[in-house]
Specification:
By secondary structure, the chain is an alpha/beta fold. It has three helices and seven strands, in the order ββββαβααββ. The protein has a three-stranded mixed sheet with strand order 1-4-3, with no helix packed on it. Strands 2-5 form a two-stranded parallel ribbon. It has a two-stranded antiparallel sheet with strand order 6-7.
Length: 135
């Protein structure tokens, strides 16, 4: 694992990837493709250590609220998240500025931050319900 200072954190479509690479080792993962231009081994996780600060700067300037996606290219709750807490910090920032984010819960790692999804109720490990007053 190595840390980098990113220049930006949100994509043109409001996607956010705090990590590049992954420690899970899934052989079918599309993120391993060379078309994404990673200049390091996929298992050597690149950590965008200044991601929360960049996200706060970006959201502070935004006028129109939108959905902020995370985890499109890697697991935002990978084992490194336990000690780094970058995804948690970003979810707190997203919530603070009144933006939305998808509720992603990865049961296998037990890392899902449902405590930062106040509008969600976990009915079981497989089902998430959104209360009618939150739709």
């Amino acid at each position: 694992m190595h840390e980098v200072k990113a220049k930006s954190i949100l994509s043109a479509r409001n996607g956010m990837n705090l990590y590049r690479g992954c420690s899970h080792g899934c052989i079918y993962c599309d993120s391993r493709s060379t078309c994404y231009g990673m200049d390091h081994a996929f298992e050597d996780i690149e950590v965008k250590i200044n991601g929360p600060e960049l996200l706060e700067q970006a959201l502070r300037r935004r006028r129109k609220r939108c959905m902020i996606g995370t985890g499109a290219m890697c697991d935002p709750y990978m084992p490194a998240e336990r000690s780094l807490g970058l995804t948690r910090k970003c979810l707190e920032i997203i919530e603070h500025y009144g933006f939305n984010y998808p509720a992603l819960v990865f049961i296998a790692g037990g890392q899902g931050h449902l405590d930062h999804a106040p509008c969600l109720l976990v009915d079981s490990l497989k089902q998430v319900q959104i209360p009618q007053n939150q739709v």
